[in-house]
Amino acid sequence: CGLVNGEEPERIGQMIRGKKEGGTHFVALKGCASAAQDDHNRWIITLPQSGSLTIDRDGYNAVLTHHKIRTGMVLKCSGEFSHDEAVA
């Protein structure tokens, strides 16, 4: 897969034939599902944090198993945040 300058259409054929000069060439990662999860995790940690939650053991286990944190699992809440905002 790659990107080429649209003003130089001959580059498209060159890239298809495997020539990597004159454009940006992307190589697929092995284990796409794992790579996609890593990308998702990197995206999450770049979000600005609006507050913090202290959760109990059940909340901790819910996070580890990719389940929702229920209100009864929250021990302490600080800061102001809305639905779908990142918290620490």
Which terms summarize this structure?
single chain, alpha+beta, 3 helices, two-stranded antiparallel sheet, 88 residues
Task: Walk me through this protein's architecture.
By secondary structure, the protein is an alpha+beta fold. It has three helices and four strands, in the order E-H-E-H-E-H-E. The strands form two sheets. The protein has a two-stranded antiparallel sheet. The longest helix is centred in the middle third of the chain and has 14 residues, at 32-45. The radius of gyration is 22 Å and the shape is elongated. The chain starts with a strand and ends in a 9-residue tail after the last strand. The mean pLDDT is 76.
Question: What is this structure, in a nutshell?
Answer:
By secondary structure, this protein is an alpha+beta fold. The protein contains three helices and four strands; from the N terminus they run βαβαβαβ.
Walk me through the topology:
Elements: E1 2-4, H1 10-16, E2 23-25, H2 32-45, E3 51-55, H3 57-64, E4 74-79
Antiparallel strand pairs: 1-2, 3-4
